[in-house]
């Protein structure tokens, strides 16, 4: 079988305070997402969110239901977001073919049965980053490029956080039930991706870091504002962010990250800010 999955259970701030580095990584870090000819998924009990990767290098890959879903097909009660971070490829949705180039996205609504991933060139395979959340209604499948995205410029070089936020799968661009996804690109000379930090108790989040050069890393900060922890991530790795946790990162070089969210509130600006001087 070409689909692998693991399950992560939800945890409280009280538990997380007691974790050492190894335990913290086991709880929140997602590794080995992009493996040739495999779909690798992590199912988290935080809002029943799924994050994963599909790499159809030498063969096409079909997205099938995993056991925790107790469904006859993957999107029976779910919606899906796909962003390509590799070579050009296609996503076939119930017979309709969508071509995704580098950094292009696709929203797939509930009820679509056959999702098939393919690469145009096996030597430069597509790397499809996947996010999925439960859905209560069917919405149309839609491809989103940077030209379609809502783009926001934030931060400044003086504070090392000048960045471009590309809102790809959000309500202002495409209709969804609860899934939201976007991509943040750091300006040259900036390293902080989300600073000042914040929490949003109405939503959980997953960060996927890519374009991290070899031998470089990103330090991801998490935890309650007054009880922070950190994890070191490499290229094409992701981290689960609970609703009660901040989520911010700083790299040793330039990088890009994809954010994905789900929960009861679709308002992107729904944030409880944490003052930098108050972080501990």
TrEMBL record:
InterPro entries with a match to the protein in the record: KduI, KduI/IolB_isomerase, KduI_N, RmlC-like_jellyroll, RmlC_Cupin_sf
NCBIfam families: PRK00924.1
Cofactors named for this entry: Zn(2+)
CDD domains: cupin_KduI_C, cupin_KduI_N
Chemical reaction(s) catalysed: 5-dehydro-4-deoxy-D-glucuronate = 3-deoxy-D-glycero-2,5-hexodiulosonate
Organism of derivation: Zhouia amylolytica AD3
One MF term in the entry's GO annotations: 4-deoxy-L-threo-5-hexosulose-uronate ketol-isomerase activity
SUPFAM superfamilies named in the record: RmlC-like cupins (SSF51182)
Name the UniProt record assigns to this protein: 4-deoxy-L-threo-5-hexosulose-uronate ketol-isomerase
Gene name as annotated: kduI
Lineage: Bacteria, Pseudomonadati, Bacteroidota, Flavobacteriia, Flavobacteriales
Group of enzyme by EC: isomerase
HAMAP family on file: KduI (MF_00687)
Keywords in alphabetical order: Isomerase, Metal-binding, Zinc
GO biological process terms, semicolon-separated: D-galacturonate catabolic process; D-glucuronate catabolic process; pectin catabolic process
